[in-house]
Design goal:
By secondary structure, the chain is an alpha/beta fold. It contains 3 helices and 8 strands, in the order βαβαββαββββ.
Length: about 110
């Protein structure tokens, strides 16, 4: 839903190998270096990664936020069977479903 869509790659390989411009099918869906595509752009407030809990995608989202994100925006990892409902008028997010949302903030990296 964000401008950047995480379309492939695993956490470890994305953190250690970075990103690739080539997608080589199902073997890269959950492994290999990160692969990004242009997203739909519905969510303008950061990067979203889905199926977060079941696919161990924390490393992949951190690497993507660092490399492609805006440091003034948060990044969000949304678990399976979970939705992040955004109310732009009230500037409020509500999480619904069986899981949770992990929020990544790279605005002030540790030194």
């Amino acid at each position: 839903m964000s401008d950047v869509m995480l379309a492939g790659g695993g956490s470890l390989k994305t953190l250690t190998k970075g990103f690739t411009n080539m997608y080589n099918g199902m073997e890269q869906l959950e492994g290999g270096p990160g692969y990004l595509e242009r997203g739909l752009g519905f969510f303008q407030h950061g990067i979203i990664d889905q199926h977060f809990d079941n696919k161990a995608r924390l490393g992949r989202l951190i690497a993507t936020a660092h490399e492609k994100g805006n440091r003034d925006q948060l990044s969000y990892g949304i678990d399976e069977n979970t939705a992040m409902v955004v109310n732009n008028l009230k500037q409020k997010i509500v999480v619904v479903g069986r899981g949770g949302v992990t929020v990544i903030d790279l605005s002030r990296p540790l030194q």
